[in-house]
């Protein structure tokens, strides 16, 4: 931060909905999280019951009371870029307005995920004697390439800071517990032919036509619904991009299709890859992105008590989130936070103030 800029001051004693708006007002698009990370660090260092650690723009604060269990509450500080549409409400600073009976906060990150981060910060201030030791994790670079993740960096640099029995990632879930997450992988299948002039196509071999069999396999594929620890995860195998061709008068000698496989947490990465090889037997597969699934861990005592505190039937998480990183470290994790995930990254991103408060109440009840 430049010398003439002051670190924003965050009041952790305020209403979590008010703190949500204050967090949104500190712009924190990926690669520019430092001002907000500075503010979070300063606010947490003022709390004597916490030990605070900083790694880049990731801040970890922990209680050390010798409790029988330790849980993690985690959330990312960064947002996607601001809307470019004139008049968009999902921008910075926040906009607060009354809509019927609802108090609504608009702004970039309100849903994804400053509401959840506000809940973390208020709890960090309130819970001087929690019934479990708590690690509060605020990390950078979630909205960009996974290799830049601040959470991943801390797992490499100081894994002891993230040791726990259970983790809650405060991503938006409309206040419902979403257990674990599907895994995801992208891969490419390339077909080869023989180039020729399209006026003499009989001497060539069309690589694009050879994609027909791959696409037919995808069209006929019947994805499974897999039960894991009482939750049903829907899988999917879909073409997401296709390419090939040189010019309007050339028979193409190469073509490719990129495919996304979303797989249930009953499979390891290796098992999911083997399934893909079986479906596309005989084709060369170029792996492009591999992200493991996460089991929900709802059979753990801490998780069962958490679900009871929330008071709603848990649901599966179909998309991929950072709960998978915790699962890889042997820490079962769930998603639970205020806001509608469908509003994330939109030009009208917003969260209801009462949703933030209800999320706070559920976590406070669980940890008190």
List the helices and strands and how they pair.
Blueprint lengths: L15 H9 L9 H12 L5 E5 L2 E5 L7 E7 L18 E5 L2 E5 L3 H17 L6 E7 L10 H8 L8 E4 L8 E2 L3 E10 L3 E2 L9 H14 L4 E4 L2 E4 L1 E9 L5 E2 L2 E10 L5 H11 L5 E7 L9 H10 L4 E2 L6 H6 L4 E3 L14 E3 H15 L1
Parallel strand pairs: 3-6, 3-7, 7-18, 8-17
Antiparallel strand pairs: 1-2, 2-6, 4-5, 5-19, 8-18, 9-15, 9-16, 10-14, 11-12, 13-15
User: Shape, please?
Assistant: globular
Tally of strands:
19
* Element-level helix/strand string: HHEEEEEHEHEEEEHEEEEEHEHEHEEH
Helix fraction?
25-40%
Strand order in space, largest sheet: 1-2-6-3-7-18-8-17
What report would you give on this structure?
- The chain has 368 residues and is of the alpha+beta class.
- The chain has helices at 16-24, 34-45, 110-126, 150-157, 207-220, 269-279, 301-310, 323-328, 353-367; strands at residues 51-55, 58-62, 70-76, 95-99, 102-106, 133-139, 166-169, 178-179, 183-192, 196-197, 225-228, 231-234, 236-244, 250-251, 254-263, 285-291, 315-316, 333-335, 350-352.
- The radius of gyration is 23 Å and the shape is globular.
- The longest helix is centred in the N-terminal third of the chain and has 17 residues, at 110-126.
- A hairpin with a 2-residue loop joins β1 (51-55) and β2.
- It is 28% helix and 26% strand.
- α1 crosses α3 (110-126), α1 (16-24) crosses α9 and α3 (110-126) packs parallel to α9.
């Amino acid at each position: 931060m430049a010398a003439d800029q002051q670190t924003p001051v965050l009041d952790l004693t305020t209403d979590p909905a008010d703190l949500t708006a204050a967090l949104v007002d500190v712009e924190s698009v990926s690669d520019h999280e430092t001002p907000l990370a500075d503010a979070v660090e300063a606010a947490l260092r003022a709390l004597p019951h916490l030990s605070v650690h900083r790694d880049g723009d990731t801040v970890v604060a922990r209680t050390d009371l010798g409790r029988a269990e330790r849980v993690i509450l985690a959330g990312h500080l960064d947002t996607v870029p601001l809307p470019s549409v004139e008049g968009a409400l999902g921008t910075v600073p926040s906009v607060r307005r009354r809509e019927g009976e609802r108090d609504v906060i608009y702004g970039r990150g309100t849903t994804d995920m400053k509401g959840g981060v506000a809940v973390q910060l208020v709890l960090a201030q309130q819970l001087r004697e929690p019934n479990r030791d708590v690690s509060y994790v605020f990390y950078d670079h979630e909205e960009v390439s996974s290799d830049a993740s601040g959470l991943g960096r801390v797992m490499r640099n100081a894994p002891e800071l993230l040791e726990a029995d259970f983790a809650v990632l405060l991503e938006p879930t409309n206040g419902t517990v979403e257990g674990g997450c599907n895994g995801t992988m992208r891969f490419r299948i390339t077909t080869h032919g023989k180039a020729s002039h399209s006026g003499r196509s009989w001497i060539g071999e069309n690589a694009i036509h050879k994609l027909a069999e791959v696409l037919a396999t995808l069209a006929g594929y019947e994805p499974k619904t897999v039960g894991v620890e009482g939750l049903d995860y829907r899988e999917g195998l879909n073409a997401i991009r296709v390419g090939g061709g040189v010019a309007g008068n050339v028979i193409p000698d190469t073509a490719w299709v990129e495919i996304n496989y979303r797989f249930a947490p009953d499979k390891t990465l290796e098992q999911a890859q083997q399934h893909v090889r079986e479906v596309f037997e005989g084709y060369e597969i170029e792996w492009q992105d591999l992200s493991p699934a996460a089991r929900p861990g709802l059979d753990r005592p801490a998780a069962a008590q958490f679900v009871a505190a929330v008071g709603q039937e848990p649901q599966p998480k179909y998309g991929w989130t950072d709960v998978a990183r915790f699962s890889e470290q042997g820490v079962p994790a769930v998603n639970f936070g205020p806001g509608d995930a469908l509003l994330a990254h939109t030009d009208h991103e917003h969260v209801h103030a009462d949703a933030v408060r209800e999320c706070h109440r559920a976590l406070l009840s669980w940890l008190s």
